[in-house]
Protein: ABC-2 type transport system ATP-binding protein
Organism: Polynucleobacter sphagniphilus
Amino acid sequence: MNQILSISHLSKIYQSGFQALKDINLEIAKGEIFALLGQNGAGKTTLISIICGIVNPSSGRVLVDGKNIIGNYKEARSLIGLVPQELSTDSFETVWNTVVFSRGLYGKPANPALIEKILKDLSLWEKRNNKIMTLSGGMKRRLMIAKALSHEPKILFLDEPTAGVDVSLRRDMWELVRDLKNNGTTVILTTHYIEEAEEMADRIGIIRKGELILVKEKLALMKQLGKKELILQLPFPLESIPSGLDIPGLSLSTDKFELTYTYDANSEQMGIGEVLRRLSEGGITFKDLHTKQSSLEEIFVNLVNAGASSNES
């Protein structure tokens, strides 16, 4: 993997004794879209803050394109663009000036053509002379991204990028992220919108109570952990599953009108064909059938709940 970010044995313990991160190990490739999922307080923002040089780690190492975020802070930080969750801009400044100023903070020479392209890509060009206070919430979110892109970073961190924006704007921003990936930018995002990760990410990382419990390619994750269901709609209610049809994973709905066979395509469970044959031999008829696969949201919830259950036991 042609990595641009390497995190080794990273931990963070605050003075209060609270351990926010526990031995995090992660490598992210150039041009990858990586989604970091976790509940509030799981450690997502702490991890991003350490990578961006805002918070010091208690132990471990972070390399950004081979540069140590502590030993080579200025060089490493210049490769990173950060769009924080909270909107913080100078309300009395114009869109153009604030983006130009952000580029200058990194010692980059003036580049009006680049700033123009960024603003046009983000649909902010018509607002370039407007004061920030006049922008809508969605436009301010776009402006934060423009500021983060102004110094041409190799990695862009998006902390809850579509929080508080409407569905249409959210989809516009998804398109923008894909364009950034196509241009070679590595994008790392945290999100509460599971469909956001399902839509865009190449890989998924799930963090729980400071521990990175899983990192996997999105499709492989859904294939490995996503349960599948065969749902049979019955023409009339079935009081109970006949005793001869003791098929593991087969259940009857509460309204008695559906049989559901839950299975894992990678396991040695009975195949759909065999299940249908057994049901037919048992005198079970159905008027319709369809299959369903677990969504990423269901997988995430199950993993988090599994962790909570194990901690309680």
Observations:
- The domain at 227-293 is CATH 3.30.70 (Alpha-Beta Plaits).
- The chain has a mean pLDDT of 84.
- The first strand starts at residue 3 and ends at 13.
- The two ends are 39 Å apart (CA to CA).
